[in-house]
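re: the backbone from monday

yeah here it is again, tokenized this time
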């Protein structure tokens, strides 16, 4: 039997439309609507709070649903009246306000997960992914609270809106159940996760867990897949996740978009965490977790960037010894406040600086890869091409970093883990042989 939901809809036509939306979404996900309390696995009561009579009727309906069924979610106008409903009925599964079909559906998923029937369900439980089956991106928030002068993301996607912790964890668990071996945690500002929710306490597996970067990372690290962190800013609290990396709970990998190193340019870029002492932070990270791989991206030729600013950036590269680096020539984006800055850098100089930057970093990256020769590492297989196995180590994110290549072991396929010994390296990739 598919899961059954009872609906009690009170109030005006606007409330009725909200109920219709909930019913539509329930039916689309394979739930049945039950006309009887006793057959329902839970009941949604959509309330009205307009006049005293409507309030009384709503309270009565909630009481009736609790007595007849016991598992009740309240939504609608009465739910928006402070703690009136939850004070009176402390054992409700959830209470939301009106026009809250997302929250109602989340509460239903939490207390009555949809059933997946491989013969009738139109989509698999993990949703439809465009990545290969063994890795997946896990978006933990939308939007951004920063105002970097070269970026218009906040005006396109709004302020930071973190997803509730249980929702992120449920999605991660579904992905892993479907065969995903690596979760790539993404957002605009991953380390800010939960700031907008004031780090409110969420629940996961019946335990209270704060909606916060460290706590989320810790929980993800318990799921048994590789967890890779992207778009992390060097805030002081990021230091707290390094012990998780050192303990092997999450991958020792940080993608930190530094963008520049000259204090003047960082100020004009209005970068988050620009005043942090980045070099000493990187040093501390490596003391805690010597295996750490740091990936970053930079912009050269930002308005006003002098030769001295650019030299400061090259010096930063020497001192930071980053593993993987991307570099872009600054290009103005319509609507960005940086467009109003004086002293644009001529295109020819921008391109020249990109080349100098990449040549400079290539030596650093190659030297860091050389140090891996002779070591053993676990790799995740991405593809088999002829007799070559194309894999990645903990130090390589898909699409953007390098690969570990070795000659085939029979029977190996994409999504398998393999243990290899590194034999050689170039600027980007490692060459290996499988070991037992
Ligand atoms: S570049 Fe800056 S403003 Fe744009 S999304 Fe990233 S942190 Fe937010």
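seq for it, each position gets an aa:
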């Amino acid at each position: 039997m598919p899961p059954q939901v009872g609906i009690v809809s009170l109030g005006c036509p606007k409330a009725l439309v909200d109920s219709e939306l909930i019913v539509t979404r329930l039916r689309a996900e394979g739930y049945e609507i039950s006309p009887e309390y006793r057959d329902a696995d839970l009941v949604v009561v959509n309330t009205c709070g307009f006049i005293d009579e409507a309030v009384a009727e709503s309270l009565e309906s909630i009481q009736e649903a609790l007595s007849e069924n016991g598992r009740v979610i309240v939504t609608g106008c009465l739910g928006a009246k402070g703690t009136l409903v939850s004070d009176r009925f402390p054992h409700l599964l959830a209470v939301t306000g009106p026009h809250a079909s997302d929250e109602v559906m989340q509460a239903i998923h939490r207390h009555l997960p949809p059933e997946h029937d491989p013969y009738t369900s139109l989509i698999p439980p993990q949703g439809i992914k465009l990545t290969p089956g063994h890795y997946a991106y896990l978006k933990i928030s939308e939007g951004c609270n920063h105002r970097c002068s070269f970026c218009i993301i906040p005006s396109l996607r709004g302020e930071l809106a973190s997803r509730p912790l249980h929702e992120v964890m449920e999605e991660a668990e579904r992905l892993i159940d479907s065969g995903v071996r690596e979760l790539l945690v993404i957002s605009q500002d991953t380390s800010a996760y939960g700031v907008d929710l004031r780090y409110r306490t969420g629940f996961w597996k019946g335990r209270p867990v704060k909606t916060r970067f460290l706590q989320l990372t810790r929980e993800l690290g318990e799921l048994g897949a590789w967890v890779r962190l992207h778009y992390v800013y060097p805030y002081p609290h990021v230091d707290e996740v390094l012990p998780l990396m050192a303990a092997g709970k999450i991958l020792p990998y940080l993608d930190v978009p530094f963008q520049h190193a000259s204090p003047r340019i960082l100020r004009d870029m209005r970068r988050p965490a620009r005043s942090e002492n980045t070099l000493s932070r990187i040093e501390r990270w490596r003391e805690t977790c010597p295996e750490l791989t740091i990936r970053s991206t930079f912009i050269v030729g930002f308005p006003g960037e002098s030769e001295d600013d650019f030299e400061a950036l090259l010096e930063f590269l020497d001192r930071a010894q980053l593993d993987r680096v991307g570099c872009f020539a600054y290009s103005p984006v319509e609507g960005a406040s940086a467009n109003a800055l004086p002293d644009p850098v001529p295109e020819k100089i921008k391109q020249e600086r990109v080349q100098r930057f990449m040549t400079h970093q290539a030596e650093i990256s190659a030297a860091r890869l050389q140090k891996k020769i002779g070591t053993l590492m676990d790799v995740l297989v991405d593809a088999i091409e002829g007799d070559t196995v194309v894999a990645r180590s903990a130090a390589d994110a898909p699409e953007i970093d390098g690969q570990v290549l070795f000659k085939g072991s029979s029977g190996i396929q994409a999504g398998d883990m393999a243990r290899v010994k590194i034999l050689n390296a170039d600027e980007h990739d490692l060459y290996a042989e499988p070991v037992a």
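The first helix runs from residue 13 to 28. The longest strand covers residues 376-385.
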